[in-house]
Amino acid sequence: MSAIDIHHPHRLPMPRARAVAQQVADKLVDRFGVECRWSDDVLDFSRAGVDGSIALRPGEVHVTARLGFLFAAMQGPIEAEIRRVLGTHFG
Question: Residue 10 is inside which H or E element, if any?
Fold first, then answer.
């Protein structure tokens, strides 16, 4: 199983960071059928072959994901897309 572990800085107030993370989660649900749920300031997501979390902290977003066998081959493009989305939404 492959893993993704990304730390990305942000300057958003926590309520705004949570709203942005929810927007990203809504897109994951629509595009990939991912299931999401909040636990405090951590948004857990999963679907067959992928599970992970988006943890919000003051000044940082921490994204982790475990990729199953089929998604492991696409780890590079998946990680690049996560970094792009974080840069777009969290600056």
Answer: none
